[in-house]
Structure prediction request, 253 residues.
Amino acid sequence: MQQENLAKLPPDFDSYLKFISQTLEDNRNKGGIAMKFEVAYFRPTTFGDPTRDQAADLYTRYVTGGIPSEKDYRTFQDFIFRYLVLEGGRLHLPVHIHTAVGIGDYFNLSQSNIMNLESVLRDPRYHNTIFVMIHGGYPLDHEAIWLAAMKNVYMDSSFGELAQYPSAFKNELKLWLETFPDKITFGTDCFPYNEVLGAEESYWLGAESSRTALTAALAEMISESEVTEVRALELAHAYLHDTAVKLYEGRVH
Prediction:
């Protein structure tokens, strides 16, 4: 609100949606390359499909105060989530969604299942929106890769290389490379996890583990005559760099 010079929420729902869109546009113009949802940490990854009138009614009822019920709040969230997904397509902002297991005893594993998002990813209304499944649905990464069969869905491998030793992460990468090699991207998930594993250390560990696992996966694929050495190098470049450069339309290098 401060960024958009608002002292209070807009008085009506149409103005609120314009406020959302303007915020996204301003963030993009300032260099933002995507929007990210941490939804799996805070609520189920299953989304309903409420109408605009339902969301507008809730906004009108609570814009000036009051506490909505959990059911009403979920309804409003579901509509706004889908509105943001649509805007991502219009503004060419890929939609990042956290899809891995979380940290902390409040995290609900069954309700954060990446496969709960399939109905959203397959919705024809969002065919212009690029989805990037951050963390690749770990530990459901073997199932999750099949979501990349949809042309606008990509898998990001970050965190997988931190949660597993390279010998295990290698198996995930090998399956992904054998299935949809043009739909996967590298990431480190660097973050200050604790006093010992800071952002610098987790970045180094993510990069080092990913390179080790990638080397092992491609070596197996070559030894099994799945790919040539030349093709293996192409796959490595795509995973580590080229696919992301194409995905973000020249906004990364």
